[in-house]
Amino acid sequence: MAVEIEADIGGGRPRTQIVGLPDASLNEAKERVRAAVRNSQRKWPDELVTLALSPAALPKGGSSYDVALACAVLVAAGLEPAQRLDQTALLGELALDGRIRPVRGVLPALIAARRAGIRRAIVPAPTLPEAALVTELDVLGAEHLTEVLDWLRGEPDTLKSTFPRPPAPPADVPDLADVLGQPEARWALEVAAAGGHHLLLTGPPGTGKTMLARRLPGLLPVLAHDQALEVTTVHSIGGLLSPESPLVTTPPFIAPHHSCSVPALVGGGVGLAKPGAISTAHHGVLLLDDTSDGVCDPTNGHFTRTNVAVHDHLTSGTAAVDEGDLAADGVCVGVCLVPRRIPL
């Protein structure tokens, strides 16, 4: 959902306040924005500055609002023109000297902006390759707040344009052809890859269970465009994208440690929920090694994930994972030792 920022100057003692359910990092933006504006050779109003974020009923957080807050204040104070801000989305965190730092979640933010009818967006320059993935949107990149303010005044060539997406590097994954013997296990991997089935490998230590499981991604085809955008969106929110090749075109392979916490596996966090290992492995392979030592207690019959943003229960099933309940498409491989018993 697009967030609209309004600014009002005057009406009280000099101070800056942000309304609209901001979290701590967003509420601290007023200090970052004030310093960045002053260090960009602009004057900060010596009056009451009120910044309203709408829809007001929805909680908002993060540092991606800094550039928009700075522009809103300067336009409301009459120091910058407002014409070019029409139908324009602004993203970026401000350093105290006015530099624009990259933020997470640029891709889903621009997709939401496009759906809201916005025609243009200004993003941090390092995130331009990621922003270029969104079509039907004019995307520009900025490295400093002064570049954005000069652009508002109509000066040409102050912002960087998007460039063609670089080709994805070839995936370096283990090859099943390297495995000698193990015909039954190889056949099981091929069936799981062909049908998108989950797989549980059991056996004594040293028989090659983990080695085989790590070769499953090499059997999967490259992602379709829609699937690649979905996976890239999740990785963008988690801050896992590479600036050199932002589009994830190969099925992800995620192998969390068997001692990882429940929030690390299913996602969570205070305030805005962040994707966990299950969401990160969307359209790919999630390897749960030593599932008998995993994070869930199968006797409870459910995972419980609790934070400010999310409250739900994930029902447990075979090897404590199930495709439908985990809300992510892909293949889950569970590896456990034979002597252990797994209550199901």
UniProtKB/TrEMBL annotation:
InterPro entries: CHLI-like, Mg_chelatse_chII-like_cat_dom, P-loop_NTPase, Ribosomal_Su5_D2-typ_SF, Ribsml_uS5_D2-typ_fold_subgr. Gene3D superfamilies: 3.30.230.10, P-loop containing nucleotide triphosphate hydrolases. GO terms for molecular function: ATP binding. It comes from the Bacteria. Residues 175-292 form the Magnesium chelatase ChlI-like catalytic domain. Transmembrane segments: none annotated. PANTHER family: COMPETENCE PROTEIN COMM, MAGNESIUM-CHELATASE SUBUNIT CHLI. This is Mg chelatase-like protein. It comes from Actinophytocola algeriensis.
